Automatic annotation (TrEMBL):
UniProt GO MF annotations: FAD binding; oxidoreductase activity
Top-level taxonomic group: Bacteria
InterPro entries cross-referenced by the UniProt entry: Diverse_Substr_Oxidored, FAD-bd_PCMH, FAD-bd_PCMH-like_sf, FAD-bd_PCMH_sub2, Mopterin_DH_FAD-bd
Domain FAD-binding PCMH-type residues, every copy: 1-174
Any single Pfam family the record assigns to this protein: FAD_binding_5
Protein name (database record): Oxidoreductase (Molybdopterin dehydrogenase?)
Length: 270
């Protein structure tokens, strides 16, 4: 849609160009959300794609995903065969309320920055123990875990002038098997609950999103049965974190979180 309050579009090409960010600037990665509804508080759009960040960087540390990397590029990436976890990228994208068309533009960074409970890339980043690199306007950086980055339903730690530069997924996590289960009230509807899982040597890492107002990361002993692990996961999430909206009631979300956790752990055990 046309954003009729916008007077200027900026195309920054270096970090110095980001030093002058101010209130009323709308940072844009893919623009699928930014352009989807009126943004009456914005005066300028800052198109981060002009920064030319490489989408995917593979090195000894793991995988660095530029915030401007689209879902499509992440899914189509060619990864080391030892990285057993990488099918989770495509499976995560399918938990997204969107046709495959939006994968061409929607970005990993944009999804994190919205902080929506149904932000599927938030769940993926949480279960993969990702670190989010934030550039501050004064030239300093922060490295955050997703559960600290997303503070509530559509809220994050980002302040004016903060830019998410990239998301690092560590090599060790990428070598481990992953699984995901999702439920929505209608077949292609917005997720009511999403559970991601990753099997480590001695434990299973579980990330719960969509059911809760912010992401939860819970680690359970891998010797627990799927039923016991599911009980453990649900018991570690405060009752008040499960919320009610048009996509599901809080008590239903809590129940299905247990069901989905059993499915995910069952898949990781098989
Ligand atoms: C049909 C449809 C279905 C959708 N389904 C879902 C869904 O199921 N779950 C969900 O979570 N979302 C959904 N969305 C919302 C949105 O499209 C996605 O979250 C998408 O991943 C956002 O990415 P983007 O690159 O387009 O973000 P943009 O629209 O570019 O930006 C989103 C927000 O993040 C900020 N931002 C972007 N990049 C940065 C950065 N690098 N640093 C700091 N701030 C930044 C922007 O200023 C803006 O506030 C849907 C949208 C549509 C149109």
């Amino acid at each position: 849609m046309d954003l009729h309050t916008i007077d200027e579009t900026l195309y920054p090409t270096s970090r110095d160009d980001l030093a002058a960010l101010r209130d009323g600037d709308g940072l844009m990665s893919g623009g699928t959300w930014l352009m989807s509804e009126p943004q009456l508080h914005l005066r300028r759009v800052v198109d981060l794609r002009a920064m030319g960040w490489p989408d995917l960087t593979i090195d000894d540390a793991g995988l660095t995903i530029a915030s401007t990397c689209t879902f499509r590029t992440l899914i189509d990436g060619v990864y080391p065969s030892a990285w057993l976890a990488t099918p989770i990228f495509g499976r995560t994208a399918r938990a997204f309320l969107a046709s495959w068309k939006i994968w061409q533009n929607a970005t990993v960074g944009g999804n994190l920055c919205l902080g929506f409970p149904a932000g599927a890339m938030i769940g993926m980043s949480t279960v993969m123990d990702a670190r989010i690199l934030v550039w501050h306007r004064d030239g300093t950086d922060s490295l955050l875990i997703p559960t600290d980055f997303v503070t509530g339903n559509a809220t994050t730690v980002l302040a004016t002038g903060d830019v998410v530069r990239s998301i690092l997924i560590p090599d060790a996590a990428l070598r481990q098997p992953t699984a995901i289960a999702k439920i929505a009230l209608s077949p292609l509807g917005r997720s009511g609950a999403v559970v991601h899982g990753r099997r480590t040597d001695a434990s299973t890492v579980v990330a719960v999103t969509a059911a809760t107002d912010r992401p939860y990361r819970i680690e359970v002993d891998s010797t627990l049965s799927p039923e016991a692990a599911a009980r453990e996961v649900v018991s570690q999430i405060p009752m008040t974190a499960f919320y009610t909206d048009a996509h599901g009631a809080a008590d239903w979300r809590r129940q299905v979180t247990g069901v989905l956790t059993r499915q995910v752990i069952g898949e990781l055990n098989s």
